[in-house]
Design brief:
- The protein is α+β, with helices and mostly antiparallel strands.
- The two termini are 21 Å apart.
- It folds into 2 domains: 245 residues, no CATH class; 89 residues, Pdz3 Domain, CATH 2.30.42.10.
- The longest helix is centred in the last third of the chain and has 32 residues.
- A hairpin with a 6-residue loop joins strand 9 and strand 10.
- The protein is elongated, with a radius of gyration of 26 Å.
- It has a 4-stranded antiparallel beta sheet with strand order 6-5-7-8.
């Protein structure tokens, strides 16, 4: 229970902190004064301001985002180190830095996983990786980690030999010898016909082993995987726009929290991989031209570059305010759908 709550909070906090740190780091690099670095929205739970820096660091009640408040972002703020005093290219770089840091985080997580944990590949050993709920194997008492040493009168040494000796035993009670914790157990299992192929199956899945990669290979694979997942997410976002992806398939904060908790229970490798995918998703969504997100701010900066002068700050802030309200409404709606799916078991 603790992991299912603590791990999602830590993962989401990591994504937010890395994103906002990207904005913060570039702002400091180009000489913009940062007034506040905040994780979360709403009432302040904790804050501190180191002497000599002039930047307040805060933790707020609603952990659904964060922000970096820079001088010169509001009308009438004429701070000499304000955001509005910097060249257009610097401002574009500062706004783009948040999503870029999330993408880099994904690459780093992939590289770390591939180097120190490995890449999951199917094992050829006759060891059960997973048991399908409601299957003959589950009813018989087979568990993940069990090693199948005999099916009927056939000795088993490789995984493929299990399928070969089960497929032709539909509805035939069959003896399975299982090695578990150094002891041999006898199970009687009746393979059932596969609904798709008609051949016998008992409902077990192949085990997985993690093969560690060399550093250079891990870096290469990390970049490739990050780009592959970015492409998949972009196709999904395009599907939302075209209507080929139902809004009911979208997971919100509750759904994501549940998935993070499930990934943590499966293993560290799966958790790190899922976190990397979430980070890429976070980066791409923030680049969408939706008011209150980084993508919208980039659109206003591009308009400024085309027009040769900035959009009226009051109008831009009003659009961001309306967009933020709509975004919060959308999050509430998606959260409602998440809770509905969980409560109904869908």
């Amino acid at each position: 229970m603790f992991l299912s709550v603590a791990v999602p909070i830590l993962v989401l906090a990591l994504l937010i902190i890395v994103h906002e740190f990207g904005h913060f780091l570039l702002a400091r690099t180009v000489g913009i004064h940062v007034e506040e670095f905040s994780v979360g929205f709403g009432p302040t739970l904790f804050k501190f301001c180191p002497e000599g820096r002039g930047t307040t660091y805060s933790l707020r009640l609603v952990p659904l985002g964060g922000f970096v408040r820079m001088a010169g972002m509001e009308r009438g703020d004429d701070h000499p180190q304000g955001f509005n005093k910097k060249p257009l290219r610097d401002r574009i770089a500062v706004i783009s830095a948040g999503p870029l840091m999330n993408f880099l985080l994904a690459v780093v997580l992939f590289v770390f996983t591939f180097s120190f944990i490995g890449i999951p590949v199917l094992s050829d050993l006759p060891v059960v990786g997973d048991v399908i709920p409601g299957s003959p194997a589950e009813h018989a008492g087979i568990r993940p980690g069990d090693r199948i040493v005999q099916v009927g009168d056939v000795k088993i040494e490789k995984w493929e030999e299990i399928a070969a000796n089960v497929q032709n035993r539909v509805n035939q009670k069959t003896l399975f010898l299982i090695e578990r914790n150094g002891k041999i157990y006898r199970f009687s299992i009746t393979p059932q016909p596969n609904p798709e192929t008609g051949v016998g199956f008992i409902g077990i899945r192949q085990g997985v082993v993690w093969e560690k990669q060399g550093f250079l290979q891990a870096v290469k694979l990390g970049l490739v995987r990050s780009l592959e997942f970015a492409s998949m997410i972009l196709h999904g976002l395009l599907g939302m726009v075209t209507g080929s992806v139902s809004p009911e398939e979208i997971a919100g904060p509750v759904g994501i929290t549940k998935m993070i908790g499930e990934a943590a229970q499966v293993g560290v490798g799966y958790l790190l991989t899922f976190t990397a995918i979430l980070s890429i998703n976070f980066a791409l969504i923030n680049l969408l031209p939706i008011p209150a997100l980084d993508g919208s701010r980039l659109v206003f900066l591009l308009i400024e570059g085309i027009r040769g002068k900035p959009v009226d700050p009051d109008k831009e802030n009003f659009i961001h305010l309306v967009g933020f309200a709509l975004l919060m409404f959308l999050i509430i709606l998606i959260t409602y759908n998440d809770l509905l799916r969980i409560l109904t078991g869908d």
